[in-house]
Amino acid sequence: MSREEVKRPLGILSLTALVVASMIGAGVFTTSGFSVATLRSPWLVMVAWAVGGAIALCGALSYGKLAHRLAESGGEYVFLSRFLHPAAGFLGGWVSLLAGFTGAAAFAAVTFDLYAWPADSRPAWLPAKSLAMLLVLVVTVFHAFHTKSGAIGQNLLVGFKLVLLVAFLLVAYSLFGNWQGGAALSRPLDSPPPNVLLDFASSVMWISLSYSGFNAAVYVTEEARGGSATIARAMIYGTVVVTFFYLLLNAAFLFAPGVQAIAGKSDVAAITAQALAGEWFAWLTRAMICLGLASSVSSALVAGPRVYAKMAADRLLPSQLATKDSPPTNAVLLQGTGVLLVIYFSGLQSLLSYLGLTLSLFAALTVSTLFILSNESHGDVPKTEGLLAPGIFVSSTLILAALAAYHRPYEAIATAVTLLSGIVVYLAVKRFSSN
Q1: By three-state DSSP, how is residue 214 classified?
Q2: Band of pLDDT at residue 32, cut at 50, 70 and 90
Q3: What is the CATH number of the domain that holds 109?
Q4: How far apart (Å, rounded) are the C-alpha atoms in residues 272 and 258?
Q5: How far is the C-alpha of 111 from the C-alpha of 128, rounded, in Å?
Q6: Domain range holding 121?
Q7: Is residue 435 part of a domain?
Q8: Model confidence, pTM
Q9: Residue 393 lies in a domain
Q10: Total structural domains within the chain
Q11: Of all residues in the chain, what percent carry a pLDDT higher than 70?
Q12: DSSP labels, 148-190
């Protein structure tokens, strides 16, 4: 093994797998039911998924250019701090912690609850979201006090999402003759909604959450063999693969059971499985999805608290969250409490809107730094032809975000509150440090 392989253990295959695994989460198993109820046409929903994939690909190309300018691990926090302002970097880290970890874990947990026990068969003694909260409590205790056990449990859950995708697609397309969607296309559900542009923008914002992991490789740039060139290729390959899978998967969701069956429903994968092969396949699909979603919650409660602990060690958060030992118990307990609060006070669709809007806006802000003249230590701004993908990503994200915020103002207010709270914390930290 060469010295570079020891210092930089991640090759193109590992990095591409990281991107794919980071992108595939709860969103793809829930979004199309809400989107088809809003847009009233399965074809418009498929276009929305394709547009989301195209925007994500432009984002992957853009983040590749950012990695070329600054080959350091850290993602948005590093890019915004270096190229814009330390305050912007802190806000990028703040949004990643609140939306990227806490919000995403809550979304995965609520989706777990919906798939674990369908609403139409749930007994009265089992309230909505109770299974989501139970999952978070168990995982929090697991990771707060039992590092070794937590790692073993996490390893057992890793990989189920990809296995599910491949297995589900093989079964779905082998039973293509059982698809019922064609008969539903002429029904009233397909009449255009009154605000098609606003509804389409909201749907793409929901869908953008499912693509939000396209930039995962930039968080480990310093561990990549081949440096920024390998990072750029991995993000492109991963995004193309996931887009292809998403289009195949959503074609099955939308056309196998018929749009009437999934419109407004969150457990679209289970409904599709039921239509394809009956009750046994539906419950098997639910079980596999629940395992994958449990791994998503577990991953967030592993990664997030360690970021809190690192920021505390850097005196950006209270020192009680820092720890010299493992695990960072206080940070894990704080993260788990935050996830429980988000689950209690929000619904699945509002979480979709909030997370899609917030994460997309900060990705656009990060990419926009490519247009800022860099100093000598960071190289030159890309040539005009090299700014096409960043231009498409930033402009399309901002336009869609503006339309979605106008259409769903409450989620936009939640995004604004997140940013304002980050500014308050940053100013407080700066004042404390100066004193």
Answers
A1: helix
A2: very high
A3: 1.20.1740.10
A4: 9
A5: 11
A6: 3-430
A7: no
A8: 0.83
A9: yes
A10: 1
A11: 82
A12: HHHHHHHHHHTTHHHHHHHHHHHHHHHTGGG--GGGGTTSGGG
